[in-house]
């Protein structure tokens, strides 16, 4: 019997005012939240928007970078994909769990295919320039995990509560055939 396709999940963090990015990075400085992200995606195949990729110091192997630029130069272990769907299909072919790690444009395109969304709700407002996509209907997904912890946000020095949510979508959309997404394959 054929192996089941690896599950697709997304992971991100959002402030209470909907912000998730500022100046090409995160609007907050909460090392423990970043450590949670790194631990959760460890060993997975990743699908990453080009701007988020460029903001990362370390990009693990089996990362698929979504970009319309055919000449994009990438670090070893990374491959360009021309669409989110192509990235998800190629990431699944690696055989590891698949995580979509943003940014906003990639969450907006990938959420229909995700079984899970790991979303840290940071219970403080932050200035930002990139918003979590409003169209993602997490309110209608099932909450299958929730844990709260408080950490000190380094820029403000304030304690901030982080709610680590795990949402589940009952019927993710099946991925379309790769041949429809890429003329190259
Ligand atoms: N809070 C969090 O959890 C979190 C997580 C990740 C990122 N972020 C933040 O989010 C911000 C970046 O988000 P963003 O939405 O501006 O950028 P992004 O999603 O990281 O990257 C956007 C780029 O991806 C490519 N792209 C997007 N949609 C595509 C499509 N349908 N087909 C082909 N290529 C596509 C394009 O690359 P080309 O221009 O090369 O064609 C586009 O310029 C940063 O501030 C980052 O730090 C926050």
What is the CATH homologous superfamily assignment?
Dihydrofolate Reductase, subunit A
Q: How many structural domains are formed by the residues? A: 1
**Span between termini:** 25 Å
Beta content comes to: 25-35%
Plain-language structure description:
With 185 residues, the chain is α/β, with parallel strands linked by helices. It has helices spanning 31-41, 50-55, 84-94, 104-110, and strands spanning 8-15, 19-21, 45-49, 63-66, 78-81, 98-100, 116-122, 130-131, 142-152, 159-168. Strands 5-4-3-6-1-7-10-9 form an 8-stranded mixed β-sheet, sandwiched between helices. A two-stranded antiparallel sheet has the order 2-8. Helix 2 (50-55) links the parallel strand 3 and strand 4. The longest helix is centred in the first third of the chain and has 11 residues, at 31-41. Residues 179-185 have low confidence and may be disordered. The structure holds NADP nicotinamide-adenine-dinucleotide phosphate. Residues 12-13, 20-21, 24-26, 49-52, 55, 66-69, 82-84, 101-106, 109, 130 line the site of NADP nicotinamide-adenine-dinucleotide phosphate (NAP).
Outline of this structure?
With 185 residues, the protein is an alpha/beta fold.
Outline the fold blueprint.
Layout: E1 8-15, E2 19-21, H1 31-41, E3 45-49, H2 50-55, E4 63-66, E5 78-81, H3 84-94, E6 98-100, H4 104-110, E7 116-122, E8 130-131, E9 142-152, E10 159-168
Parallel strand pairs: 1-6, 1-7, 3-4, 3-6, 4-5
Antiparallel strand pairs: 2-8, 7-10, 9-10
The structure holds NADP nicotinamide-adenine-dinucleotide phosphate (NAP).
NADP nicotinamide-adenine-dinucleotide phosphate is lined by residues 12-13, 20-21, 24-26, 49-52, 55, 66-69, 82-84, 101-106, 109, 130.
